[in-house]
Amino acid sequence: MTTLFPHPTPVLPAFQSILVKGKYHASAPVHLVYSYVAQDPDAKAILLTPHRGMFEDALVDLNDEWVDQTSGHGRVCAATRRTEIFYPPTLGHLRLLLSMLHEYDGVLHDSKTTLDVAPSLLVLHEISSYFGSSSSDPTVSSYLSVISSALALAASWSPRCLQSSKLVIFDSGVSNLKLPILKPLSFGDETEEQQRHRDTLSVLLERYLEWTAEVRVDHEAPASNMSDNPLEGEEAAKSTPVDAVQTRKTMVMRRCCSSEGVDYEEITWRWTEIVLTREGGEARTTFHWERT
Fold this sequence. Notes:
It contains nine helices and 13 strands. By secondary structure, it is α/β, with parallel strands linked by helices.
């Protein structure tokens, strides 16, 4: 019953590793982690994200109604207590953290990276933000080495878990991240020839991961201008004196590899995100699914 949205909602297919890219909503990692740990009292998750402030600000700006109204409930708090969040600020810190996280085996290497129970879910969030202009190692190999380390870490936890540990990557910028395969050997600026050898990283990631999911925006407009406003009945009446914007989105999930010998399969989700701002109130975001 793992998902990226508040219930009721479609659920993700069975997976061991998945990349979510594109215009996904800021609360998607929250819903994923909560829905995963809530279904199993023994499940534990770890989320790694570069910037605590940016992560929290994005959630505040979205103001997911479900998160706002239920995050303080006892059952939600009980489940989220089995989630740990780390904020490695640089690529070097991220690599170091992935190399040091381990389940306690009688030896305490470091109190912050020694875990009492092996997690069954590892989430990496916005890795591409490490590869800005100030990055000391902006290459395809350095990005893929992070993925390899994360896969190896999840695999090392699997024998200690009741189920195999899973890896989820959320990266909105990976499709636009073009990096050289290796770091240029010259000390000067990149030549035109070196620029031509830059590859789209998201294509290469398909060789490492089982599933990819890309979210795109299909349409955005004030709700009053839409011919098929999904708000109905009492909710529509309440929403009359408001500023309302709705954004239609599509997510296409593609299976990159299959043990059954199937090259790929695709699953498509479509929904509308509605931001309602009632008079004298704050904006809140809700999710509405297309009728099929």
